[in-house]
Design a protein that fits this description.
By secondary structure, the chain is mainly alpha-helical. Among the domains are: 249 residues, no CATH class; 174 residues, no CATH class. 49% of the residues lie in helices and 5% in strands. The protein is globular and about 65 Å long. The protein starts with a helix and ends with a strand.
Length: 618
C-alpha cells in the first residue's frame, strides 16, 4: 500500500492541469526573474499545456516522469559536490531549518522526490544546502564573511550558481499532467527560503506574493487536496513574514483552509497549530485594515461598525481555539510546540484587541498576556537547550542559526515595543540577547538586530517622557531618582546630547495611520546613507564618554531594584505623548537597519506626525 506520503506523491503524478497562467504584472512589481535580470517575464506559470504537448505520462512507479535530459542523478558520483550537498540537505538542513510538524512531509519527502524529476527544484535545494552549510560554519572560519553583506553568503559561488540554474529551469519549465501547479508552488517556497537566508526582504516578499497569487487561482482538482494539506499551512504561516513587514499578499481562499479555527476539538496539536496560523493570517489582514480605517473614517462611518463586529468575531474564534487547544495539548508529549502556539495565541489576541484603538495606552490592559509571551518564550528557549548527551550536531539542530519559520523572535520584539512595563519589556530584550538566541535568525527576523532596535525604542520613549516632563516642570507622581543607577548614570537611557535621530520632513498627516510607503521610506533612507558613519562614530563615543550609555547597557535595569512603584503600574511613567506610535524597520545589511519612528508632534495644533529616522548598528 505504501505510506500516506507515498500515496500522495502518486496522486500528484496523476493530477490534471488545473491552473491558468499568472501574469507577472498581476503581482507588482515583477517576479524575481524580472528583478534580477531586467527582463520582462510572465511570472511563474507558463500557458496551460494540452495532453499532446504536456511532456509525458506518469512512470510505472507512480512518480512524476523525468525530463528526457535528466536522469536519476547519474552524474552524482559518490563524493561529488552536488551529491554531498543533497545529502547535507537531507541529513542536516531538513531537521535544522524546517519545523518538525505538519510541514515535515513536504521538506522530508516531497522535496527530495521532486529533486529527481524537476531540475528547478533540484538546483534550489542544492543552493539551500550550500547556504546552510556556510551559515553553520564557526565564527571566523569564513575569511570573506566580514567583507560581504548578507551574513557572508554572497561569497558562496556554488550556491549562487545553483540558484541561477534553478531560476533558469523554472523559467523554461512546462507543466505536465503530473504537477501543473505543485512545481511552481514548491519552487516558490524554496526560493523564499534562499532569499530568507540571504536576508533579502524585497525578493522574499515577491516570492511570497507570487506563491499566494497562484494559490488564489487554483481550480478544483485531485492536486488541490495535496496542496491544501502540505502547502497551504506553510503559506499561511508566511503571513508573519509578510504582513509584519508591510506587505499585503493575496488572501488564501477559504476552500483551501485546512481546519476551521472554531472547531471544538482537535485530534492533534499539529492540527490545532495549522488552525491557529490560518486564523492569524486572516487576523493580520484584519488588523492592518482596521488600524488604517480608524484613522481615516469618521466615527459614525458604518465601516467602523463592520470592523468592530469582525473584531469580536475574531476574538470569539481565538477563544474557541484556545479551549480546544488546551484539551488536546494536555496529553501532548511535545511541550515546546504547545508553548509556541500559546506565544502566538496571546500575541494575536493583543493585536486584534487593540486594532480599533489609536492610543498606545490601550496596550497597558494586556500586561498579563505580555507576561505569558515572555514566560512561554523563555520555556521554549530553555527546552531547546536541554539536548540529550553532548553531541554538537544535535545542539545545532535544536537551536540553529537560521530557521525558515517564525518562532520566538517576532513576539519578543513585539513585547519590547508595545509593552511599557519597564522590567517586562527589558526581559523580552534580555531573552533576545541570550547566547542561544542572539545569533539566531527566523526567516527575516534577526534576534541581535531586533534586540538593538527594541532597546532603542525603550530609550526613545523614556527620554521623551523625562525631557517633556522636565521642560514642562511637571513632576507630580514622578520619582526621578528611580531613573538613575547608584552611580548616577541614567538607567537604560541615551543622554539627550547623544541622540542620533534625524528629523524626517516627509509629511504624514495626523488623520492617517503613521506609516510611509515602503518604497518611499527606502528611498528616504538611501538618501541618508552618509549618516551611517556619523552613527558609528557616535556609537563608539558612547563607550568612551563617561556617563554615556549604549543600548547594550539597558539590561542592567531589568531587575526589580531601582524602579519606583508607579513605574510598575499603568501607565508605567510613560504618558501617551511619550510613546512610539509606529516604528518601521528597513533591513539594510548585516551591519544594521534603518528605523523610522512616529510620535505625537511637540507643538500644539500641529497637523503632522513627528517623524525621525535613525540607523541602528548591530
Amino acid at each position: 500500500m505504501g505510506t500516506p506520503a507515498d500515496q500522495e506523491m502518486t496522486a500528484l503524478s496523476r493530477a490534471p492541469p488545473a491552473i491558468r497562467k499568472v501574469k507577472c504584472d498581476e503581482t507588482k512589481p515583477a517576479c524575481i526573474r524580472c528583478t534580477k535580470t531586467g527582463r520582462k517575464c510572465d511570472g511563474y506559470l507558463p500557458p496551460e499545456q494540452t495532453a499532446s504537448n504536456a511532456g509525458g505520462s506518469p512512470g510505472s512507479d507512480g512518480l512524476p516522469p523525468l525530463s528526457p535530459s535528466i536522469s536519476f542523478f547519474s552524474d552524482w558520483a559518490g563524493g561529488s559536490r552536488e551529491q554531498r550537498a543533497f545529502e547535507f540537505y537531507r541529513n542536516f538542513s531538513v531537521p535544522s531549518i524546517f519545523s518538525d510538524g505538519v510541514a515535515s512531509t513536504l521538506w522530508k519527502k516531497l522535496v527530495p522526490h521532486f529533486c529527481h524529476a524537476e531540475p528547478a527544484i533540484r538546483h534550489a535545494v542544492l543552493a539551500i544546502s550550500s547556504l546552510h552549510e556556510t551559515l553553520a560554519l564557526p565564527p571566523g572560519s569564513n575569511p570573506t564573511a566580514e567583507e560581504e553583506d548578507n551574513y557572508g553568503l554572497l561569497a558562496n559561488t556554488f550556491a549562487s550558481e545553483q540558484y541561477g540554474k534553478a531560476l533558469k529551469h523554472l523559467r523554461e519549465w512546462k507543466p505536465t499532467d503530473a504537477s501543473p501547479a505543485t512545481v511552481p508552488l514548491l519552487a516558490c517556497l524554496l526560493f523564499i527560503c534562499i532569499e530568507f537566508m540571504l536576508g533579502d526582504e524585497a525578493a522574499s516578499q515577491l516570492h511570497i506574493t507570487q506563491g499566494r497569487s497562484i494559490l488564489s487561482q487554483l481550480k478544483p482538482s485531485s492536486e488541490v487536496e495535496i496542496i491544501k494539506k502540505h502547502f497551504v499551512p506553510i503559506y499561511s504561516r508566511l503571513a508573519l513574514a509578510s504582513f509584519l513587514f508591510g506587505s499585503f499578499p493575496s488572501a488564501i481562499p477559504p476552500s483551501l483552509k485546512t481546519t476551521p479555527a472554531t472547531k471544538l476539538f482537535f485530534s492533534t496539536v499539529d492540527e490545532a497549530e495549522v488552525a491557529l496560523y490560518e486564523l492569524i493570517d486572516d487576523g493580520l489582514r484584519f488588523t492592518a485594515q482596521a488600524k488604517r480605517a480608524v484613522y481615516t473614517c469618521p466615527p459614525t462611518d458604518p465601516t467602523l461598525l463592520d470592523f468592530a463586529r469582525e473584531q469580536q468575531d475574531f476574538l470569539s474564534k481565538l477563544s474557541q481555539w484556545h479551549v480546544a487547544f488546551v484539551v488536546v495539548s494536555a496529553l501532548d508529549v511535545s511541550p515546546s510546540k504547545g508553548k509556541l502556539c500559546m506565544v502566538y495565541y496571546h500575541a494575536a489576541r493583543i493585536a486584534v484587541c487593540t486594532a480599533m484603538d489609536t492610543l498606545e495606552t490601550a496596550f497597558d490592559a494586556h500586561t498579563e498576556a505580555f507576561v505569558s509571551i515572555v514566560s512561554s518564550s523563555a520555556e521554549f528557549v530553555h527546552a531547546s537547550r536541554k539536548i540529550p548527551g553532548r553531541d554538537p550536531s544535535k545542539a545545532a539542530i535544536a537551536m540553529p542559526k537560521f530557521v525558515f519559520d517564525t518562532e520566538i523572535i517576532p513576539p519578543l520584539y513585539y513585547v519590547s515595543v508595545k509593552c511599557r512595563h519597564p522590567m517586562l519589556r527589558r526581559a523580552a530584550v534580555d531573552l533576545l540577547k541570550q547566547d542561544a538566541v542572539t545569533m539566531r535568525r527566523e526567516n527575516l527576523w534577526d534576534a541581535q538586530m531586533l534586540s538593538e532596535i527594541g532597546n532603542r525604542c525603550i530609550c526613545i520613549e523614556e527620554v521623551a517622557a523625562r525631557c517633556r516632563q522636565e521642560s514642562l516642570d511637571i513632576t507630580t507622581g514622578w520619582d526621578f531618582a528611580s531613573w538613575e543607577s547608584p552611580d548616577g548614570v541614567p538607567t537604560g537611557l541615551f543622554p539627550v546630547e547623544h541622540d542620533d535621530s534625524i528629523d524626517c520632513d516627509y509629511p504624514v498627516p495626523l488623520f492617517q495611520y503613521p506609516q510611509i510607503p515602503k518604497l518611499i521610506d527606502r528611498q528616504l533612507n538611501a538618501g541618508q546613507e552618509w549618516t551611517k558613519e556619523v552613527a558609528g562614530d557616535t556609537a563608539r563615543s558612547r563607550h568612551a564618554t563617561p556617563g554615556s550609555m549604549s543600548t547594550r547597557s539597558t539590561m542592567s535595569s531589568s531587575s526589580s531594584s531601582g524602579w519606583a512603584a508607579h513605574r510598575l503600574e499603568s501607565p508605567f511613567g510613560l504618558p501617551e505623548y511619550a510613546r512610539i506610535k509606529n516604528a518601521l524597520i528597513d533591513k539594510g545589511s548585516k551591519g544594521g537597519s534603518w528605523i523610522t519612528v512616529f510620535m505625537d508632534p511637540m507643538g500644539a495644533g500641529a497637523a503632522h506626525w513627528k517623524v525621525t529616522k535613525e540607523y541602528i548598528r548591530r
